[in-house]
Amino acid sequence: MSVRAKKHLGQHFLKDEGVAEKIANTLTFEGYKNVLEIGPGMGVLTKYLIEKGINVIAMELDPESVIYLDKHYKNKNLQVVPADFLKFDLTNFFNGKQYAITGNFPYNISTQIVFKTLEWRDQIPEFTGMFQKEVAKRICEKEGSKTYGIMSVLVQAFYDAEYLFTVPPTVFNPPPKVESGVLRLKRKEDYSLACDEKMLFKVVKTAFQQRRKTMRNSLKVFNISDKLKEDTIFGQRPEQLSVAEFIALTQKLENDAISTNS
Q1: Which of 18, 52, 163, 204 has the most beta carbons within 10 angstroms of its beta carbon?
Q2: What average pLDDT does range 180-186 have in this prediction?
Q3: Which pLDDT value is given to residue 76?
Q4: Torsional class of 190: left (φ above 0), alpha (ψ -120 to 50), beta (otherwise)
Q5: CA–CA separation, 182 vs 164, rounded Å?
Q6: Cβ count near 206 (within 10 Å)
């Protein structure tokens, strides 16, 4: 791939065979036989996925990489799709069957990939892949940490998140200036929410935009009743609240709004 294309995609291509195989092995294949690889580049991870005997779709935006993949990795279980994942309609993907997502994700769109995965969680029981280390750590972080934030809560509302291992810059071409981290997200058995999804997203994002303030101050936009403000949860800062507590808080705000407007 040309330097220009690499720069455009914000991607650092994996060249270490051992790391590629290790990433392929992060998939459990529990409840699915289909895998979508995002940004395969020259296929260093793709070939290890094919060896698993499952159906693989490699989605690649760069034309040079698409030609290379078609030429070097022809396989009955592999389909190369020249498309942008963030703009692709996943409605009938794999004919509606369950599938996992994996890849060495471009740093500059990795969080967008995660948020799109959340939108299509009904079809995606598992998600593994490589991120910038600090992003992977943040996604998997628990309450009480300074790096616990919006992505931590929203991802873990639906998935169990596990940080698996760290990858040094030396295994990439060109090498990034930071370490990378590989994680695994496994969809919860019951991933339904006991509150309105849009409301939860709004509450979490609003709270963490002013993470140094207490919930009482950061959530003023919700016009909370004086009675609800007395709840001890409003005396805490957002990083102190667990995912379950954010869901419970959202329920309380919904009920409070109904009571206030009735």
Answers
A1: 204
A2: 97
A3: 80
A4: beta
A5: 6
A6: 17
In angstroms, the CA 79 to CA 110 distance is 22
* 31: Cα separation from own chain's centroid: 19
Q: What percent of the chain has pLDDT over 70?
A: 95
| Burial environment of residue 43 by CB neighbours within 10 A (0 to 12, 13 to 18, 19 or more) | buried
Number of H helices and E strands in the chain, helices first, is 11, 9
> Encoding tokens for residue 233?
């949860």
Bridge partner list, 38: 59
The larger pLDDT score, comparing residue 105 to residue 8, is at 105
pLDDT of residue 74: 79
How far from chain centre, in Å, is Cα 219?
A: 26
Interior CA angle at 193 toward 109 and 184, to 5°?
A: 40
CB atoms within 10 A of CB 256: 18
What does the alpha-carbon distance between residue 172 and residue 14 come to, in Å, rounded to a whole number? Answer: 5
For the chain, domains (ranges, CATH) are: 3-187 (3.40.50.150), 197-261 (1.10.8.100)
Residues 6+ apart with CB under 8 A from 231: 252
- Mean pLDDT of all residues in the chain? 92
**How far, in Å, CA of 238 to CA of 214, rounded?**
7
Average pLDDT over residues 96-110: 94
C-alpha span between 217 and 196 (Å, rounded): 22
Residue 12: the pLDDT is 75
